[in-house]
Amino acid sequence: MKKIKTIDNLDVSVNIPGSKSVTHRYLIMAALAEGRSWLRHGLWCDDTRYTALALESFGAQIKHSPPAIEVIGTGGVLNCPSKPVYLENAGTSMRLLTAVACLGRGSFVLVGNERMHSRPIEELLVALKPLGGMVESLQERGYPPVRIKGSGLKGGSTMVNASRSSQFVSAILLAAPYASQPVEITVQGLVSRPYVDVTLDGMSKFGARARWLDDENLRVEAPGRYQAGSYDVEGDCSSASYFWAAAAITGGRVSTQNILQQSRQGDLAFLDILCQMGCRAEWHNHGVTLYGGELRSIEVDMKDMPDMVPTLAVTAAFAQGKTIISNVGHLRIKESDRLRAVAEGLEKMNVQVEEKADCLIIRGGNPRGALIDPHNDHRIAMSFAVAGLVAKGVRIVDEMCVNKSFPQFWETFEQLYG
């Protein structure tokens, strides 16, 4: 159990690790490329390690040599693993690798833990079939484990229902350059669109040709190849958000290094939300500094920033007025039911919160300390740790669940105390 200490006069600079989303994608593209790649500042955490281990079972060679990850690619020729590939609760790994495995030859089985087997993947399986993907759920229909009878992708056209996850789109995009014909994707109900743009940006850097044709249609030129090389992984805006929130609720100052102003990461827009709530941001050569202020409530659609909802909800608990966070029903199928987990934690802290099917309504006030169960969800643990900087007596159980995305979180968090 982690006991959080309150703080006065927050004024600190912290280094932010590489982006988890970018690292997943770069690992896959480097593994499909022919030759040796270096992913500088790539994030090595539980989730990305599961992706790396799976790619090694597909035939890539991957070595974590800080400050880089070295990858010797397969040239798109994937081995068939001799046993099921275990991915724990790494949802990104499960979805992206399901599409990638279609490029191999033979039977691939991807499995996870109990929570993973309740996280949907049906929309991806349906979308892969018109492209030649031979994929199926092994137990309950539409959920992992999944079996892929690899025989390559022929390409062509498909439709993706992305109303529950943008990862269904990113998965097909990442595999598509290795199809035998160009791939066109019609996207319906897309949530978290910035993550698709992160995928497209990475594909362009690795030499693939993929683009939006309009607001609903994508095209990937194929057959093609990713190019091995040296690539920089930018800082993770999701990880930075906890330190921005720390500045916001304490009225202090936090400078986050390794954050790019021109980043495609959608969570960068969390800065704009905090500024609307009363904070001030200043960009500099190596990142951005956030200055806290008197916080006010906000009404905001968070469809494109779902990972920021726990952080925003905790921040809103210290703001004056009623904050409405809407269009976030897809948070119920994350590592936990995040809407329920957030509401539960705030209720324990004596915060008035109303939980609806796809919405949270939070009335700010004076949160008190409480024992917080993050339900094995890294983002719940990190968000409520921030609350403990002001609310005396916050304790986090199962605090090492942060290893999923930010293994150095507690070490970095301690830097806030100087």
List keywords for this structure.
UDP-n-acetylglucosamine1-carboxyvinyl-transferase, Chain; alpha/beta; 23 strands; 12 helices; 29% helix; four-stranded mixed sheet
Give a short summary of the structure.
The chain has 418 residues and is an alpha/beta fold. 29% of the residues lie in helices and 24% in strands.
Please provide a written account of the structure.
The protein is of the alpha/beta class. It is built from twelve helices and 23 strands. The protein has helices at residues 20-32, 46-57, 91-101, 122-128, 167-175, 193-205, 237-250, 270-276, 309-316, 338-348, 378-387, 409-414; strands spanning 2-3, 11-15, 36-40, 61-65, 68-72, 85-86, 105-111, 135-137, 146-151, 156-161, 183-188, 210-212, 217-220, 230-232, 253-257, 280-284, 287-291, 299-301, 322-326, 352-356, 359-363, 371-372, 395-396. The strands form six sheets. It has a four-stranded mixed sheet with strand order 2-15-17-16, with helices on one face. The chain has a four-stranded mixed sheet with strand order 4-5-3-14, covered by helices on one side. Strands 6-7-9-8 form a four-stranded mixed sheet. Helix 2 packs parallel to helix 3 and helix 9 (309-316) packs parallel to helix 10. The longest helix has 14 residues, at 237-250.
